[in-house]
Amino acid sequence: MPDNPIRRVVTGHDENGKAIVVSDGQPPLVHTDPRRPGYSSTDLWRTNATPAPIVHRAEDPTPGPRRQLPNPLGTVFRINVIMPDSQELLAMDRNDAREVFASMGNEAANTFASGASARHPMMHRTQTVDYAIVLEGELVMVLDHEDVVLHAGDVVVQMGANHAWANRSDKPAKILFVLIDGVFQEGLGQVAGGH
Predict the structure, then answer these.
(1) Range list of H helices, 68-120
(2) How many CB atoms lie under 10 A from the CB of residue 50?
(3) Which residues on neighbouring strands pair with residue 85, listed in sequence order?
(4) Which site among 33, 48, 184, 191 is 20 to 30 Å from 16 CA-CA?
(5) Which residues contact 74 (CB under 8 A, 6 or more apart)?
(6) For the chain, which domains are there?
């Protein structure tokens, strides 16, 4: 569990349609990985349809096996803590990185950048539109040919691009994501390098 757990408040409606708190506490799913000490990924909520159904008391959609991506027509809302890049992380080969992504619930081969062109071991892309907000610290969004330094308060709209999140600082960083199921425009569905 992270040192600073996240409080999640979920609302709903009583039998008379009045607003109520359905749950208030820590989210049930926090993903960690021993290969990335200090890293955590907390799923806050998921939707599985568009438009998302609004009901009296929604069943919590986050428990169960970890899934990195949204279901078709769905969304994922999560917060990740990313530790400074370690020598072990930077030395990962593509097989190690595939294992890390598989542990996050993303084994799809088309999510990985070409090993020959990857500028960071965690380079990947997903068929999603992602809204990302840096909450704390500093991160570097590594793209195919450029790096973008991001600070707390900066916002990224990630349009299915090949990328990685690097922490080149000496402090943990926290980033909020909303992943929205998407469809690649014709010709964009292949990762450079043929993967």
Answers:
(1) 87-90, 94-103
(2) 12
(3) none
(4) 48
(5) 46, 47, 48, 49, 50, 181
(6) 28-181 (2.60.120.10)
